[in-house]
Amino acid sequence: MKKGFSDLRTGGGMILPPLHIFHWGAGAPSPPGSYALGLKGVGTGGLGASPPSEKYGGAEVSFRPPPRFATFVLGWFSNLGITAGAHRLWSHKSYSAKLPLRIFLAIIACLSCQNSIYIWCRDHRVHHKFTETDGDPHNAKRGFFFSHMGWLWVKKHPDVIKNGAKLDFSDLMNDPVVFYQHKFYYPLILMISFVLPTVVPYFLWNESLWNAYFVAAVMRLVLTLNITWCVNSAAHMWGYHPYDESIEPAENIAVSFFALGEGWHNYHHVFPFDYRAAELPWKVNPTTQFIDLMHLIGQAYGLKYMSKEAIRSRATKYGDGSIYPRGDKTN
Ligand SMILES: [Zn+2]
Ligand SMILES: [Zn+2]
């Protein structure tokens, strides 16, 4: 039996958070085959919510493996569309992709609602070209909040517009996948990021529409947006500088862990055309492993990367010594 909104708000006579996402599960009955975790729902996107619990009078969120796996995949793909698609493929052209892979990446890029691929790449190319100047759309020198999300709330600095006009983005619009994703962006994100995450859990595992919308669509979106924004904020502030200590972008393992390998930002700003966006293969970097897999099945090709010698040469001259020993920086 499905519960209405008023049922979701009350449980055992006390007011609970509307979606029960911050409710600890001690004592909550678990459906067969589930396993309990404390903060239910958070980090899962709620796609695996079990039928409403009578005990709590609301949407009890369980950890049944199949829907949890589906939720994890959705959240993971939210970021992958940006990291493997908008970023490494279209912004930096660090590899090439065949049409099926480009279409797939363009679709999952819609999950994260970070503007069309064209707009995303335009801003990102300007960011790289004019890093931490007034011409950088999310100039980290203006503080954590500005580089994290504040830049999206205010008018662009005139230098951003002036500098953007100097760059060539014709390659982006010449790709029909980018062109049509831009042209139909709003209907696409409405369907892919909001409607589907709301109705699929409703039909497939009896989730309430209300719970699915706020957790699987909205909360998942808020989490993934903040993860991506940390690349522009945290990874421009905290971490080592093994490849160039004169720039602010840093190697940040926490950002890399959540942002699928995008936190090795000192390396990335020094070698932006390297499809790995990091040097060392053992580092946390699921986006690189995804591209490698696509290469294996023939969907990705022309992977670009720096040679070990070139990396070492650069790092020993300009790095902070955290990976390679400091060398002669006078040459
Ligand atoms: Zn950056
Ligand atoms: Zn980049």
UniProtKB/TrEMBL annotation:
A GO term, aspect molecular function: stearoyl-CoA 9-desaturase activity
Topology relative to the membrane: Multi-pass membrane protein
Membrane-spanning ranges: 69-90, 102-121, 184-204, 210-231
CDD domains according to UniProt: Delta9-FADS-like
Keyword terms, alphabetized: Fatty acid biosynthesis, Fatty acid metabolism, Iron, Lipid biosynthesis, Lipid metabolism, Membrane, Oxidoreductase, Transmembrane, Transmembrane helix
Pfam families: FA_desaturase (PF00487)
Main location: membrane
Residue ranges of every copy of the Fatty acid desaturase domain listed in the record: 69-282
Gene Ontology BP terms: unsaturated fatty acid biosynthetic process
Co-factor(s): Fe(2+)
Entries under InterPro entries matching the protein: Acyl-CoA_DS (IPR015876), FA_desaturase_dom (IPR005804)
One Gene Ontology term, aspect cellular component: endoplasmic reticulum membrane
Cell location: Membrane
Entry similarity comment: Belongs to the fatty acid desaturase type 1 family.
Domain topic, free-text comment: The histidine box domains are involved in binding the catalytic metal ions.
This protein's name: Putative stearoyl-CoA desaturase 5 isoform X4
Organism: Stichopus japonicus
